[in-house]
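General statements about sequence and structure are easier to judge against a single worked case. For one protein, we set the task of working out the structure tokens from the amino acid sequence alone. This step matters because it turns folding into a mapping between discrete strings. The amino acid sequence and the backbone structure tokens for this protein are reproduced below.
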Amino acid sequence: MGFCPQCRDDRVLVEIAESLRPSRRRPAAGVLSLADARAAKVARTPIGIDEFDRVIGGGLVPGVGILLGGEPGVGKSTLVLQAAGSLADRGGTVLVASAEESVSQVALRAGRLGISDDSILLSSERDVDALIEVARSALPDLLVVDSIQTVAAREVGGAPGGVAQVRESVARLIHFSKESGVPVILVGHVTKDGGIAGPKLVEHAVDVVLYLEGDPERGLRVLRGLKNRFGATHQVGLFEMGESGLIEVVDPAGLLAAGKRGEMPGSVVFPAVDGTRPLLVEVQALVAAATAPQPRRSVKGIEPARVHQVIAVLERHAGLSFADKDVYVSVVGGIKLRDPGADLPVALALASSLLGEAVGSLAAWGEVGLTGEIRAVAHGEHRALEAKRLGLGRVIGPVGGGGNDRILAALASAGLLGDAEWDLGD
């Protein structure tokens, strides 16, 4: 326009010359090329617990933010305290901030676990800013906050554990971690639907999301990696809860499938694969006459929808009726299976219990389709090798596509449909 439309004065306008664009060959300050970024090696600090280090990718990365979730009583506080003790034994310094418990309570737990080290610092500070100042002055090799739902920022409204408080507390702790290079482990509780409490933004703000699961009434615990910016995801670590804390399970197959009795109907071994690690678990099924008008379906360790689908396939394509039967399916050891290859072991266990025929020393895997075919799943060779390592005599697993009679072939190969011979593959 050339003048101000309000005062009609053209003297208030100031001309600003357009600056020249920088050359593309000249990178801006603070910018690295991809080649330079690859050349910079990231140093990892092993904690000293092999199962924990495996899940997080080999050790702690400077400035990493880790979120550890789990149900109450599953052993989250025990695990992080043992990790602190192991890192301290290797010469590191750890600051454990437990706003849920007093310093003396944390010291009592450490005494029960056999942890006594001057390199472990304790704090019960609830103010997140004061906690960050303590960590900034101490500069430990690891900061543990147990739990993130109990710390709060003073200028943010709401009680500790609320959406706003959790979001702001996590943001400030992660900012401190990236700025100082101190790794931070945040312990979080889970909600009724099984998700980690707090907004979903918490999982986006951290680098690693771990979940500790297991039946509190049983000793086995599974540490599962759901997200990892510095390593592979879906890795698992196995622990057994004992009097002295969590003990690493070196041979999980020997623990999970050691008590299998091959002469009993309704029991099949399933070589599951979590990440890159094979785990032999026992899948049990019990089929009994229904005593109520509506038959009961009880499932533990597997998604109920998959079990209902397998039952429908057996009824439609194998001629086995479960209409007037109560069905119980369980995975021994408190393991929760997410592997689609568990369909075939469930089908064999159901048929074995219904017909009253034991399958003996047998391992099986495969995904059961709605049309009755059994589809191949990943890591078939690793599953077979693990089954043979433990001395299982027979394995049943698909090697490729199949027709609508593949479920019948699997049942016959397991000895549940007479002496008919079927070619299911090696």
